[in-house]
Design brief:
The structure is a homotetramer. By secondary structure, chain A is α/β, with parallel strands linked by helices. Chain A contains twelve helices and eight strands. In chain A, strands 1-2-3-4-5-6-7-8 form an eight-stranded parallel beta barrel, surrounded by six helices.
Chain lengths: ~300, ~300, ~300, ~300
């Protein structure tokens, strides 16, 4: 079971499709294998970047079973849904299939502190003893969660074992949460998203790792390992080498298309297809990504990577 | 099949629950019967007021089948969903079960005209030849749809046969749409929501009827019939008699609890239960509703109703 | 000075313009006189309904001075502004001119409880010893304020002496705040807005009066007086007679045009002009208002009013 | 006068304060001088990053006059305001003082295409013959503007001479606008914001330069000059060297504090003070900026800069 000690790299998995929009299970297998080879300690599936909302209930379950059957590392399943009944049903199926935990983002429209804590109280009750990740991603959800609200949820809900941190700006939030756990609050795992954009600073502030799906997932492994080895300058060299691409992939609404293009270029999936509604990249954008990839390769070579 | 000629009263049906939160199918039967007796020309189920988001997929289908098996009038099914795959799957099941059409509200987050028309193009494509109702409810969805956007969707999507109009303010929008269809644009049905708050003015502006779930659904029948009979003063007398209650029920986030309280008081359902998350009424609110109901009864008596 | 004991009717004053958009000071005088004659205990100027945002700084000051020089009742001045410096400057000028207090709505964009309390701490500091009204109007500002946040601001800021309550739904909020002050929290004045739509229930929940600008401001006086006299049925009769018009005026974005039409029809101002950007009423809307006014007059006649 | 041919670097100027919050005119002089020395072709003052909302009207005018009196390059003044009267008054004063144009961002709350074009029609009318920059910054304003809306405004308003482009993602928008002007639409200047995060790609897509206030404004000059000289690889080397800092400064709500820290560290202003409400940097954040600055310096040295 997922618990507060989780750390390292939980890669957010893309969901591969064939050119006609059907699920591409062969690519899914290859993707799972490659994520693990490139250093994932776990995988998160059916998150926002997994195009979860575009799958039918049957397809979601098929993806869950396929990934869990294949993966050598633990699986977390995104179960955000407009209603608790659907969330609870999907979470139950995922856990029965072998998932280690689930991830929940608050629905758009929550505003006050009381609304947010109330929502997660209901989530925790609906999920029973299933451990869950609280996804804090205001840019996508519009829900702004204060550190004090997170601490309240952590205090009230023992099954909340991890924060997927992608508030922006969010560095002070990590420091605040760590100061609170140092002072006696229950310490939960903090893995960071935002495409890795602030990964190095996040680690220095006390994060336990990354949970994101950057098209070169080995970046997270390399940066975290260098940090843990105390080689901070080396970590910065690596991080900076990937930075122009991280930044380019960070364009909201385009990030997934860029990421799938990269995964396809690298042979990790067969097709860069996004399911509708969801557009591919323009020729200009493809040229931009490819130029960045070529430079990145040279810089990583210079670093012996 | 639902088409552009639909008119009259399409009552938005509540979904009744037992005190423990389970679906109350006996009450559902009684509710369907009573809605028809009180003058419904059709029913709309699994809309926002039907707590659709709180049902699992299996429960949704069970409700659809039960209502369609019972109802003497045509059924429209709300199928709004975060993704097109889930929407399309539910719509297919509903139509197979005998529904006459489906209703779709745009997801929160759509902003520009192009985003909104693009979304409904995708919806129409995903639904194939299933006729659909465009639900225009900015207070709930946050999506503001210009008249020109509605006209564009109507022009582009022949399966868009009805507007559920609950923009606020929205009277000029009805006039604009009717002016456009008088000038040659395809004329679709316009049924109005907003709890009936502006029903009389909406009819005078060219709406074809009401699609809402006010706790006294006979109000819509009575007002529409009086208007059609040319008895405008009588229509206003009826409308005004219900107005204090319409206004009270219009409180966002509380309307459903008020409505279910009324339905339970009137014996149309067994319990006023809302499924979680969703609170019941305070003692003070119940006293307020009951006081309004008592006065309303006297005024309707005076009108011979 | 405005303080926690304020009660009764604080009418929100419109700002009259000539047909060419210039300030109409003669109408302003007449409006101030009439508001007082119709029972206002105070006036609030330069609020959202006073088209404050459309006045230059010089014009705002001219309006403030004219109204204060004319009015027999105390004046509250709306000073909401994007920045504290502008707010503080305007508040200082208003108080120097003889205003009794100011009103502040939070800027769009505030979300978490901490952001909102932090903002009002800054407001209180910037205003020094000037008493202020906290305007709680989520439909217009997008800022949702929990009862606990209001209580925190009241506890922290002794100069916060009044709540302009126009949350929707908001009845439980009044009950919660009154329960808190009954239990020992500082009791501030609560005057209610929302065009008077829930005035009767608000009074029964513990509100101290109304602060709104309904086109027939005598309604607030009559309803409050009847309530205070213990004639609740009479109060309801009056309230119900105005209800169809209250509801019609409640259309967001159109309310001011309707109100100015009414004020002009009643001879309280010379022209219904709105300053740009801001449209007048269509012919259809004018016909609707006039029909409602005629019926309202008859019903009030029947009540001996 | 500012016109469609404007290009290069328009630096967004910070507004320096003394530790007690008063305007620091000496630092303002030095800042203006340094911006020009570091290659600015123009300056934009009183934008969002200039803490415009925190200045009183008198202070705004004082800053305008001081900067215009000092600067060897043309000045654009941000005049966004809740109302057209205040905007028009400030714009008139700015132009009289010698500004070459003004900049206007749409107010929060605009949604439909028609609302946005309508707003800018009103702006253009209110500004008369004053040339203006349309600021397109959805992350800050919440207003999403389609390319077709921009083209409509450009077609309708001859005084709209420049787009301050900071939509995100926004690269396709630049391509679309340039394709339209290539096909015959009036071509206006496009200068890009977003802290320079996508400057290189923006230039390649057809932007005319940068309008942003990154703490090392020479970056914009160097990247643009290298691009124009056809030395694309060199441009990328420079851009990449600054990238970790650009990214760090891009944190919304913190960017200005980071920028002012940098400006103070570099001696361009005396104090990093932000006016209230607005917090300074934590010790951890300062350490992060300083570490980035040290690495950046080394990398620029390696590039001979």
């Amino acid at each position: 079971m997922l618990d507060e000690t989780a750390k390292g790299v939980f890669t957010i998995a893309a969901t591969p499709f064939l050119p006609d929009g059907a699920l591409d299970f062969e690519s899914l297998d290859r993707l799972v294998d490659t994520y693990a080879e490139k250093g994932a300690d776990g995988l998160t599936i059916l998150g926002m970047m997994g195009e979860a909302g575009k799958l039918s209930a049957d397809e979601s379950l098929a993806v869950i079973k396929r990934v869990i059957g294949r993966s050598p590392v633990p699986i977390v399943v995104g179960v955000s849904a407009p209603g608790l009944a659907a969330m609870s049903a999907l979470a139950g199926e995922a856990m029965q299939a072998g998932a280690k935990g689930v991830m929940v983002a608050p629905p758009m429209g929550l505003r006050t502190d009381a609304q947010i804590t109330g929502y997660f109280h209901n989530v925790a009750e609906a999920l029973g003893d299933i451990p869950f990740v609280l996804q804090d991603f205001p840019l996508a959800t519009g829900v702004q969660i204060s550190p004090s609200v997170i601490l309240q949820i952590v205090a009230d809900c023992p099954t909340c074992v991890m924060l997927k941190h992608e508030d922006w700006p969010g560095l002070e939030k990590i420091s605040t949460l760590r100061k609170a756990s140092d002072a006696g609050a229950r310490r939960i795992s903090i893995l960071c998203g935002n495409g890795g954009m602030y990964l190095l600073e996040e680690l220095l502030r006390g994060a336990d790792g990354a949970m994101t799906g950057f098209g070169y997932p080995e970046m997270m492994r390399q940066v975290i390992d260098a940090c843990h080895a105390g080689e901070l300058d080396h970590a910065r060299d690596i991080f900076d080498a990937y930075m122009p691409m991280i930044r380019y992939e960070a364009q909201p609404g385009m990030g997934l298309a860029i990421r799938k293009h990269t995964l396809a270029q690298r042979g990790m999936i067969a097709h860069p297809t996004l399911r509708k509604p969801g557009a591919g990249l323009s020729a200009a954008a493809i040229a931009e990504v490819d130029a960045l990839a070529a430079r990145q390769k040279r810089r990583l070579n210079d670093l012996g990577l």
